[in-house]
From TrEMBL:
InterPro entries for the chain: Ferrochelatase (IPR001015), Ferrochelatase_AS (IPR019772), Ferrochelatase_C (IPR033644), Ferrochelatase_N (IPR033659)
Pathway: Porphyrin-containing compound metabolism; protoheme biosynthesis
BP GO terms, sorted: heme biosynthetic process
Organism from which the protein derives: Actinoplanes italicus
Name of the protein this chain belongs to: Coproporphyrin III ferrochelatase
Ligand binding (Fe(2+)): 181, 267
Gene transcribed to yield this protein: cpfC
GO cellular component: cytoplasm
EC number: 4.99.1.9
Length: 342
């Protein structure tokens, strides 16, 4: 297969206060979420002047990738398009068509399987191509990378750096707490052809990062950033509840490592650096938050290697045992049942 471009696929985020509500309406489009609920979430963004850091983080990643590609002879122009905010993927795909692109490789900023993390990016691609119409380039999404050394090693380095900020005398009662975005239980059950792929991959990533970073410590995988109505079950426990449990069991310090994310966007800097940190302070727990990969050189190199897997037939580095594939089975990870508008 001949590829002639690269496109970074991401979530998108507001960049000024007036962007916040339209962005949030895009995130929940078709789901009948009332504006009052969105106004609550908007508050989190307003603590940061209505600016999510995610777009700048993607600009930084794109710039690092261009340098990395140039240094390794990968001659693909790099584009970027989002699901929920500008630059919107449909506009990017129109630009790619105008530039004569025929078949691009797409890298989504999520390591895992599941609807929000994987399938929805395939849907974004299909919708953007349909919007552009005849002449729209094909886009093949690169594979999931939850156990790639270029993902696991930067996470492990982040845990080790975070541990250095805690009291070494209390290491024996320090615990690693890995977090990922909670999803509805029904969504988790249909993630991947055999189900539960999202959770299973996260469990494997947690195991690998723990082994590489601090095998002497105990660890858990818990969930953050739950939304949706309370009567709908989502993956539990929530990180805040879990800190409470740990404090009751004699744990004195925690390192919280958000392995579910590739950069320190709003779900990290609000839900962890504010909410979970406050919870820890209330419980008297020492607290350190480990970094996400961001533009760590090994992570940037990983993206380039994932491209070369498709162009140069290279090996597929993997530290874990769960299988990976280039094209997801058509019936995996269906969207959640749509809620009716109230
Ligand atoms: C699995 C997963 C990831 C990780 C994979 C990936 O990265 O793709 C992720 C990432 C993110 N989620 C983000 C923000 C939001 N997620 C929401 C809502 C939801 N997320 C869900 C799942 C996930 N989300 C789900 C099942 C919902 C319920 C509604 C729905 O089914 O869509 C809402 C709506 C308001 C609310 O109800 O809380 C917001 C604002 C941001 C941007 C942060 C920034 O701006 O910096 C990022 C990177
Ligand atoms: Fe989300």
């Amino acid at each position: 297969m001949v590829y002639d471009a690269f496109v970074l696929l991401s979530f998108g985020g507001p960049e000024k206060p007036d962007d916040v509500m339209p962005f949030l309406r895009n995130v929940v489009r078709g789901r009948g979420v009332p504006d009052e609920r969105l106004a609550e979430v908007a508050e989190h963004y307003m603590h940061f002047g209505g600016v999510s850091p995610i777009n700048q983080q993607n600009r930084d990643l794109l710039a690092a990738l261009e340098t990395e590609f140039a240094a390794h002879g990968v001659k693909l122009p790099a584009y970027w398009g989002n699901r929920n905010w500008h630059p919107m993927l449909a506009d990017t795909v129109a630009q790619m068509r105008d530039d004569g692109v025929q078949h691009a490789l797409g890298f989504a900023t999520s390591a895992y399987g599941g609807y929000s993390s994987c399938k929805q990016y395939w849907e974004d691609i299909a919708a953007a191509r349909e919007h552009v119409g005849p002449g729209a380039p094909q886009i093949s999404k690169l594979r999931q990378f939850h156990d790639h050394p270029g993902f696991v090693n930067p996470l492990a380095a982040g845990v080790q750096d975070a541990l250095k900020t805690l009291d070494p005398a209390r290491r024996a009662s320090t615990r690693l707490v890995f977090t990922a975005h909670s999803i509805p239980v029904s969504m988790a059950a249909t993630a991947g052809p055999t189900g539960d792929r999202y959770n299973n991959q996260l469990e494997e990533t947690a195991r690998l990062v723990h082994a590489a970073a601090a095998a002497d410590l105990g660890y858990d995988l818990v969930w953050q950033s739950r939304s949706g109505p309370p009567q709908v079950p989502w993956l539990e426990p929530d990180v805040n509840d879990h800190l409470e449990t740990l404090a009751g069991k004699g744990v004195t310090d925690v390192v919280v490592s958000p392995i579910g994310f590739v950069s320190d966007h709003l779900e990290v800097i609000w839900d962890l650096d504010n909410e979970a940190k406050e919870t820890a302070a209330r419980l008297g727990l020492g607290y350190a938050r480990a970094s996400t990969p961001g533009v760590h050189p090994e992570f940037v190199a990983m993206v380039r290697q994932l491209v070369q897997e498709r162009t140069d037939d290279q090996s597929r580095p993997a530290l874990g045992t769960l299988p990976t594939w280039d094209v997801c089975p058509a019936d995996c990870c269906p969207p959640p049942a749509r809620r009716k508008a109230p």
